[in-house]
């Protein structure tokens, strides 16, 4: 390909090109962390969003003994079958309730001496007019003290906050891209100033603007690859550390988020993308500058 012919301008000897790979590496480092953080936030917000769809939780106070608890649950399940707007209901096992409480109560959560409330998950039809307050009022005469929690009330706000954070991360990636473009433009113009006489000679002997632009574009592409690879190598141990911390969080504190294959692939694609952006930016900058020089 003509793009990869040997350069006639010796651009690799410019002082500007010695620092550009490190600047790009730093920007790629920030971009990799931002992209990984963005995708992991998306995992968490999607898990929360799935949890608020059409679900409510009924909490029945602990009875005097296990037999009383069983009676209360049976009464509640029987009453729920008669309520319009309820699609399904399911009792949460005591072991699962203990696991949910362990992050706060530790091993005490699994103790036989700790009275645990009975929990029932309810799937509701959101098109109906059933609310948590109405459901609590229906159950109160049968099981006094029963409370109903509609997850969508507080999880919706949390999901909105996470989505806003995703927008911030996306904005950071955009700013990094713009900063990279600005850096390449400045470096390219500086290189053209250094090689101005050589460019004028090439013009004199009949070299086309496209030929000269190709020299700068090729060099920018190579520098973009170099900086991209270094940036990803710097980001990798930070991402591995982040993944280790998330995997060792207590269960129940946050939905599981991990650096899966899709995230690593997305981070890896930053290298060719940044190289192509550098190449296209250098080429357009040279062509515009040459038109002013003629």
Task: Annotate the secondary structure layout.
Blueprint: H1 15-51, E1 55-60, H2 66-80, E2 86-92, H3 94-105, E3 118-124, H4 132-139, E4 147-150, H5 151-194, H6 196-204, H7 209-247, H8 261-268, H9 270-293
Antiparallel strand pairs: 1-3, 1-4, 2-3
Helix pairs in contact: 1-5, 1-7, 1-8, 5-9, 7-9
Give the key terms.
294 residues, alpha+beta, 2 domains, 4-stranded antiparallel sheet, 4 strands, 67% helix, elongated
Overall average pLDDT: 81
Anisotropy-based shape: elongated
Give the fraction of residues assigned to helices.
55-70%
Order of helices and strands: HEHEHEHEHHHHH
| Residue runs with pLDDT of under 50 for 5 or more positions | 1-6
Output the number of helix runs.
9
Beta fraction of the residues?
A: 5-15%
Number of strands: 4
The gist of it:
This protein is of the alpha+beta class and 294 residues long. It is built from nine helices and four strands; from the N terminus they run H-E-H-E-H-E-H-E-H-H-H-H-H. It folds into two domains: 187 residues, no CATH class; 84 residues, no CATH class.
């Amino acid at each position: 390909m003509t793009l990869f012919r040997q350069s006639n301008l010796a651009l690799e000897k410019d002082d500007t090109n010695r620092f550009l790979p490190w600047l790009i590496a730093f920007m790629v480092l920030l971009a990799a962390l931002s992209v990984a953080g963005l995708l992991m936030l998306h995992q968490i917000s999607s898990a929360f969003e799935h949890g608020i769809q059409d679900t409510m939780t009924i909490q029945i106070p602990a009875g005097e003994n296990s037999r009383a608890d069983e009676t209360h649950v049976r009464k509640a399940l029987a009453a729920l079958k008669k309520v319009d707007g309820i699609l399904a209901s399911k009792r949460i096992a005591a072991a699962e309730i203990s696991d949910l409480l362990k992050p706060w109560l530790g091993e005490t959560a699994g103790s036989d001496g700790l009275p645990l409330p009975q929990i029932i998950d309810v799937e509701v039809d959101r098109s109906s007019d059933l609310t948590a307050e109405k459901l609590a009022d229906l159950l109160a005469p049968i099981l006094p003290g029963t409370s109903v929690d509609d997850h969508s009330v507080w999880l919706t706000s949390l999901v909105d906050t996470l989505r806003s954070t995703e927008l911030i991360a996306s904005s950071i990636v955009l700013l990094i891209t713009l900063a990279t473009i600005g850096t390449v433009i400045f470096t390219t113009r500086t290189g053209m100033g250094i090689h101005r006489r050589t460019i004028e000679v090439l013009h004199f002997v009949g070299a086309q603007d496209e030929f000269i632009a190709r020299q700068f574009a090729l060099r920018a592409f190579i520098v973009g690859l170099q900086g991209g690879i270094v940036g990803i190598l710097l980001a990798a141990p930070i991402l591995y550390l982040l993944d280790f911390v998330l995997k060792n969080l207590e269960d129940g504190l946050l939905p599981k988020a991990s650096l899966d294959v899709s995230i690593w692939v997305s981070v890896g694609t930053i290298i060719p993308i940044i190289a192509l952006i550098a190449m296209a930016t250098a080429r357009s900058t040279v062509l515009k500058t040459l038109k002013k020089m003629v």
